[in-house]
Design goal:
21 strands, 501 residues, FAD/NAD(P)-binding domain, alpha+beta, 6-stranded mixed beta sheet, 15 helices, 7-stranded mixed beta sheet
């Protein structure tokens, strides 16, 4: 047997240890050597504590025990994201991890709801979604597994301590043979003929060679951005927020099974309830508010005592033009950053890992078709998330200078077409792969005041009285189902209580 393929992960944190854990779980160790280089001197960006349901898929992919994982990361459950003051001041809605309604005729449920809404015989769209109704009651339960049960028509995600998650995965990966190398990288050596990264040199003078490198070095993008010169494609003209100030606070008695995003004068504020504390942050555009003003605004709006001094993070929205260049794959902040409005940061790491594992070369020669396909699918992921985030910004009243800017800006043609299709006929394209299917778009469109003029004409065939009766019964069924679920705090206390830190 020949020499093993040498895969080197540069940087720890959430991205690095997620990648290392996936490699430990799924790669043939007789063919692959996996090392991760990180320095205890270099801190990590502690954002991304709210996740999407795909994270459960990733943990299941690794074979993690859910209870053990939740206890180790002080995690709680998440049924969706509540948006406060988005659209118009005083409005609120929830983007759920579930579907609206259930089949009641030949057309899709949303088309029937649109017709009934225009007739004045429908309840709010949110009344037909189990995770929304349960979230509003602060209730949570696991899906029942019964196809005909409204309490099964949802998925769930987690709120977690990202630092603890990285530490948990590090322990898990090292137990399975991942080699961790301590040290700060001071030099990157490239092959003079091919231009590939050949090795990195540490402050200790140790030289680490590799056949392929995964850049998880954060915003520095040490290999992909600095060494290979892959430029950042900026999207600040669409997503102008460029800073965040974050602070943890004492856990609130309002232990919600959802993240909260509240629109503010110069951006928006997050609230993420964990078992041992609440995570808070203000994402803002620095041209409209100073760091000190943002920190003061955040501290004045906490629902519990602050546990640390506010910390300011600076970022630029966008992605590297290529996520895989030469023999380097960029993951996490090294490959791009989109603000955490829809909790997509960890998801993008997860997708990069899954696609990389599928496309890893069989030898040291890398067929160009492999990075080409990786870059194609990651571009699709970023573009779809970008459009979804921009929708949140443009569908607002222009209540302050930032909101005047974003509501008047030109937007991507892909988003313009999606908005027009929805306005005209309530149509949302269903992706085969990737994030944000029709229920997600429907939640934001309706929640922020974009209503369709008409819907699928097949929905016209049902008599008004029959439609009203079916909608009424469904809303009652969902309300009763949500009432059977326990309080989120009680469920967590029984299922996965974490020891105090």
């Amino acid at each position: 047997m020949g020499r093993r393929f040498d895969l080197v992960i540069v940087g720890g944190g959430t991205a690095g240890w997620m990648c290392a854990a996936a490699c430990a779980a799924k790669l043939d160790r007789s063919r692959f050597r996996i090392r991760l280089i990180e320095s205890e001197e270099i801190g990590t960006v502690g954002v991304g504590e709210a996740t999407l349901p795909q994270m459960k898929d990733f943990n299941d992919f690794l074979g993690l025990d859910e209870v053990e994982f939740m206890q180790a990361t002080q995690a709680s459950f998440k049924l969706g994201i509540e948006f406060v003051n988005w659209g118009r001041e005083g409005d609120r809605y929830i983007h759920p991890f579930g579907t609206f309604g259930r089949p009641i005729g030949e057309a899709d449920f949303f088309s029937y709801w649109v017709r009934a809404h225009h007739n004045g015989t429908a309840a709010p769209l949110s009344d037909y979604c189990f995770p929304i109704v349960a979230a509003r009651q602060n209730h949570f339960m696991l899906p029942t597994g019964k196809a005909d049960d409204v309490r099964n028509a949802f998925a769930y995600a987690y709120h977690l301590d990202a630092f603890l998650y990285a530490r948990y995965l590090r322990r898990w990966a090292e137990e399975r043979g991942i080699e961790r190398v301590e040290g700060r990288i001071v030099d990157v050596e490239r092959d003079t003929e091919s231009g590939r990264v050949a090795a990195v040199t540490l402050q200790s003078d140790a030289r680490i060679e590799g056949d392929m490198f995964v850049d998880c070095s954060g915003f520095r993008s040490l290999l992909l951005g600095q060494a290979l010169g892959v430029e950042l494609e900026e999207w600040t003209h669409w997503l102008p927020c460029d800073r965040a100030v974050a602070v943890p606070s004492v856990r609130s008695t309002d232990f919600t099974p959802y993240t909260r995003s509240t629109r503010r004068k110069a951006g928006w504020q997050w609230r993420i309830p964990l078992q041992h504390r609440t995570g808070n942050g203000y994402v803002y555009a620095s041209q409209y508010i100073s760091d000190d003003e943002a920190a003061a605004a955040l501290l004045s709006s906490l629902d519990g005592e602050a546990l640390a001094e506010p910390r300011v993070l600076r970022f630029t929205a966008g992605k590297r033009r290529y996520a895989w260049a030469q023999n380097v794959v960029g993951m996490g902040l090294a490959g791009g950053f989109l603000e955490p409005l829809e909790s997509t940061s960890i998801y993008l790491v997860q997708m990069a890992i899954m696609h990389m594992l599928t496309l890893l070369p069989s030898g040291r020669t890398i067929d160009p078709a492999l990075p080409n396909e990786f870059n194609r699918v990651m571009d699709v992921e970023y573009d779809r998330i970008r459009d979804f985030l921009i929708l949140h910004y443009v569908a607002n009243d222009p209540a302050a200078p930032l909101w005047q800017q974003v509501t008047a800006m030109d937007i991507p043609q892909s988003l313009t077409a999606k908005i027009e299709r929805f306005r005209n006929r309530a149509y949302v394209e269903a992706y085969r792969d990737g994030l944000f299917g029709p229920p997600s778009w429907q939640a934001v469109f309706v929640g922020q005041g974009i209503m369709p003029a008409a819907a699928d004409r097949l929905a016209d065939a049902m008599p008004d009285a029959v439609l009203a009766d079916r909608l009424g019964k469904l809303a009652q069924t969902i309300e009763r189902g949500a009432a059977t679920a326990p309080l989120h705090a009680d469920f967590v206390a029984r299922y996965c209580p974490a020891p105090l830190p």
